């Protein structure tokens, strides 16, 4: 089994309508897969999910700074780093949720894009967006296994559900600006659902909303792409960011086979959806 464990951090779609912050889908199962193969696969996954300090180098019985030093000095495996990160998130859950809720309330009062989207959503007959339907919570990472035996870590930044509202993953929010981008992204999904009665099981519908959410939320602005993510291109940087994030989000959906399938669907709806900036007159940057 490969020891390379790429960690993804754009939010994975846990439901048909959740937002994926850079997500990877669970590989589709095959009807011809043997019982022994499934048992072997489940065994590898179970082994990964159960931390063994002697194998990973991470020991929760040791102080966090000692574990962090071991990570910096290369004494912890990628698997151990994953377990360390989840351990720290559990330890700091109350702090992270309080910080997230304070930033959420601030954005609902003072953020131009959040206030604008809240107003437009309410005008369409939606509930007033506030602390009762914009919830901060800790979102554990999901671990999936690719057909070649490589473990993939899928992290969720937030989500939208028509029946419950918006989820903000408190443990994944770097700062207020990051939360603002995530909240605006989910608000675009809420607006689209009310405005066009989106069928979230239809990949074309979902792809269109993902394109619009990445385009209109501000998460693909030049400073975010270049300074935070380190993506520098001379031309079409904004378009590439929107396309990439839409593909990543779509890939995490159960009905999407893989990234090739997601790319095909995004390309099919790209022209019409990328040109639609409603409810804005122009792209918010």
Automatic annotation (TrEMBL):
One Gene Ontology biological process: proteolysis
Compositionally biased tracts (Low complexity): 20-41
InterPro entries: Peptidase_M76_ATP23 (IPR019165)
Recorded topology in the membrane: Peripheral membrane protein
Polar residues: bias regions: 1-12
Any one Gene Ontology molecular-function term assigned to this protein's record: peptidase activity
A Pfam family reported for this protein in Swiss-Prot or TrEMBL: Peptidase_M76
Compartments where located: Mitochondrion inner membrane
EC number(s) recorded for this UniProt protein: 3.4.24.-
Top-level taxon of origin: Eukaryota
Sequence segments annotated as region (Disordered): 1-54
Enzyme class: hydrolase
Entry keywords, A to Z: Hydrolase, Membrane, Metal-binding, Metalloprotease, Mitochondrion, Mitochondrion inner membrane, Protease
Functional summary from the UniProt entry: Has a dual role in the assembly of mitochondrial ATPase. Acts as a protease that removes N-terminal residues of mitochondrial ATPase CF(0) subunit 6 at the intermembrane space side. Also involved in the correct assembly of the membrane-embedded ATPase CF(0) particle, probably mediating association of subunit 6 with the subunit 9 ring.
Assigned protein family: Belongs to the peptidase M76 family.
Protein name: Mitochondrial inner membrane protease ATP23
Gene that specifies this protein: ATP23
